[in-house]
Design goal:
heterodimer; A: about 90 residues; alpha+beta; Enolase-like, domain 1; three-stranded antiparallel beta sheet; two-stranded antiparallel sheet; 5 strands; B: about 250 residues; alpha/beta; BirA Bifunctional Protein, domain 2; eight-stranded mixed beta sheet; three-stranded mixed beta sheet; 10 helices; 11 strands; about 40% helix; globular
């Protein structure tokens, strides 16, 4: 299953998620996080995309996963945050 | 004596060359080869730059760009798509550790935008910083800015709109919903201004550059000394232009 979402982060930027997931078990197969936000270091977003693959399309697990990636890679978002990222991803769920 | 920074006036260049020069200056400054640098430049042919995280094909109508002879390039900075035509673009490159650059990223945006605002004031335009990364005059956007930090070095580049053609801009950009296109264009026309629109007269690029030079000098209490790209910067810029900014791999990577 492939789907996309567009989410305006409150007081932030426009987040666009392109998602491929397995509808039988709700496991994320492939994700692309795009938009006009800022993230430092920029290259960490590609690692974040790889790390999210295999995660269950479910709020708590996604939030945990994303927080852990942010901590490990010392990612600093501007115009985006972990909660909004999860919101954008969950909006792709059909 | 005031601290001296370098001023580069590189004129009009292609999108690929412009983005390559900004990065080459960042690398050279990080290596301690060149002083903090402020650069003013323009775009020939006109071009669209997209933010590092944007999807090229989501944002840009590539066929329309080709029809109009407009280049497109992915920046190393985040932020949104920008149509560069009638504008002055600036960049500043400075060590993260420099005393005049706040450690906090949002504070450093505000500080650097302060230089642009002082420059606008010199042109007779009162403006305000509008977080995250805009400057507004009379409530309308007149400047957009984007910052990256790499190799312990800050690079911020941004625009000062000299004139703006919103209809042309939207013929080159894709929008999520065609049905609301007319309304969106009207909204943007209401939300954007330019030096020409604000003052009711045209200003030359050189006049705006002179004002921005004063703006940077006053904001940072430095003297900008006009200089040239070093041989090392030129060589690296050529390499980055060829191997990164003009390639499909880079521009279509997201």
């Amino acid at each position: 299953m492939r789907s996309q979402s567009i989410y305006k982060v409150p007081q932030g930027k426009l987040l666009k998620i392109s998602l491929e997931y397995n509808q039988d078990n709700n496991v994320i197969k492939n994700i692309r996080i795009t938009g006009d936000f800022f993230a430092y270091p920029e290259e960490a977003i590609e690692r974040m995309e790889r790390e999210i693959n295999g995660t269950l399309l479910e709020k708590k697990q996604l939030l945990e996963k994303i927080h852990s990636i942010i901590n490990v890679d010392h990612i600093h978002f501007i115009g985006l945050d972990a909660e909004s990222l999860v919101q954008g991803i969950l909006m792709c769920k059909q | 004596m005031k601290e001296q920074w370098r001023l580069l006036q590189t004129g009009l260049n292609t999108a690929f060359s412009n983005m390559a020069i900004d990065q080459a200056v960042l690398v050279a400054n990080s290596d301690g080869m060149v002083p903090p640098t402020v650069r003013f430049y323009g775009w020939m042919p006109p071009a669209i730059s997209i933010g590092y995280f944007q999807s090229l094909t989501d944002e840009i109508d590539i066929q329309a760009c080709e029809r109009f002879g407009v280049n497109y390039v992915r920046r190393i900075t985040g932020g949104g798509a920008v149509f560069h035509e009638k504008e002055l673009t600036y960049s500043i490159v400075i060590p993260e550790s420099h005393i005049k650059i706040p450690k906090n990223i949002m504070e450093s945006y505000s500080r650097i935008c302060g230089a642009i605002m002082k420059g606008l004031q010199y042109l007779g335009i009162e403006s305000d910083y509008a977080p995250i990364n805009d400057i507004v005059a009379g409530g309308r956007k007149i400047s957009g800015n984007a910052q990256t930090r790499k190799l312990q070095t800050v690079l911020q580049h941004g625009t000062v709109l000299m004139d703006v053609d919103v209809d042309k801009m939207f013929s080159l950009l894709k929008i999520p919903n065609e049905k609301i296109k007319d309304k969106l264009i009207d909204d943007v026309k209401q939300r954007v201004t330019s030096v020409k629109h604000f003052l009711g007269k045209e200003m030359r690029f050189t006049q705006i550059a002179e004002a921005m030079k004063v703006g940077f000098e006053e904001e940072f209490q430095v003297e900008l000394i006009e200089g040239m790209l070093s041989t090392g910067e030129l060589t690296l810029a050529k390499k980055l232009e060829k191997e990164r900014f003009s390639t499909i791999q880079w521009n279509h990577r997201r």
